[in-house]
């Protein structure tokens, strides 16, 4: 069982002819609602690939019985939620105009409850963006920890980042995030890699790099027709972690993450085009050759 | 039975520390969802005052079974809806920052269907903001018509405004709206009053004026602690129309409208603090003296 800690969120993606000036209005020509939140995206990816997953999120009184709730149940995500009846489930409103300019309004909502929530002790946990303090407590109490600071990397103090990395077994970050971590901690990238042991740095459509001990492997992206890059990183983690608990070595896990992400970016939305294990395997073998048998034991 | 034609809408009212620049984001510190839409506000006011009311609106696939739907059923609004399963119920997103500056994004959504919807023939109808062409068709087919152009007054062509006023028995407008109607039609305010016969012009917190034939009456606002002026006009119309179908003379209807509005502005939201007939009567008698018996027959 993989546990994933972090946000469950609802994304309202709207198109407008133009973004409004202050004290003006505009009309929405199209609004789509997508299921999102980094942790929920990762959990949905893992569940769709067929692994057991528990999602630990803060949700509002608007969640139970909602379409998002039904979707999670349908794909088999186990929910371990802090329910805040008077708050909303975290919600993002993003408006894009005809020239591609955007404005985003993000409602943290129920996720405020992370700050005072009791941190669980878990055998295998991935920590996506959430409250830094809560993530620190989870990391300290858990056995095997994978960590991905996401855009919240800016909210981590030096002490928090130190605590969490001291308890991290696998680190995921993109180039901006690793740079910010180096700045906050005042250490080099290599020092961070040495501390955690296994680090994966993603480079958008340019592939990813795996660092283990003294080795370094580049994994090229799988070329697909890109519809929307949102959710690529989350689905990469879902693929990696699903493979990891099956016993695949880290380099194969990265390839499986890459292939999983290649499905998600072909459609708009983070959870709209997740592959099952078999679809993933077919595409894997087209690009990376035979998918060898795993060595059980990590899960 | 009073019919009300126009929008049912959902209002998301959010507070943000600052409004975002282009390609930036901000966080929402508070978001409240209110039931709105001019026609729905008026229908809710009428239903709460105890009159029979049918609401004619366009709604999306998100409406049936929603909290707004349950609320309408609870207060007894009869729904005569054009349901557009693939669209959203009209929705407004309003963001206000700490200095009071605002941005509004309005999704017309299902209301697009008014343009091609079949107009009903009604014995007593109030037309709130909706598609001008649809309102014209309703006005032409109906027996007794009350009309309130609202902020949509700018969308009416000279021909549409001419058609609708030729079929209007009672006109409601604020000062901006009547000025715009004069501009569009190229006629004086007095000419419009003469044409419709009964006109009520509201002046925000400064009361309202009733014009009938050659008489003119000023009705002062009821002094209350103002929380939110939104919905004042809609609840005024609800009070007026409820009284009118009971047989009260227009001046008394205006006073009842004024008293009804005084409740609504004491709380945030357009449908959160609607009075029942008895509460309205108690406050009426405190300010305007004994509420005489109506002369039945208008309804």
Descriptive account of the structure:
The structure is a homodimer of 299-residue chains. Chain A is an alpha/beta fold. Chain A has nine helices and 16 strands. Chain A has helices spanning 38-48, 67-75, 132-141, 158-166, 175-185, 189-196, 232-246, 250-264, 277-288; strands at 2-5, 9-15, 24-28, 30-36, 53-56, 58-60, 78-79, 82-84, 91-96, 102-107, 124-127, 144-147, 170-174, 198-202, 208-212, 215-219. In chain A, the strands form three sheets. In chain A, strands 7-5-1-11-12-13-14-15-16 form a nine-stranded mixed sheet, sandwiched between helices. Chain A has a four-stranded mixed sheet with strand order 4-2-9-10. The longest helix of chain A has 15 residues, at 232-246. The radius of gyration of chain A is 19 Å and the shape is globular. Chain A starts with a strand and ends in an 11-residue tail after the last helix. The mean pLDDT of chain A is 93. The A-B interface holds A 14, 16, 19-20, 22-28, 31, 88, 91, 93, 95, 101-109 and B 14, 16, 19-20, 22-28, 31, 88, 91, 93, 95, 101-109.
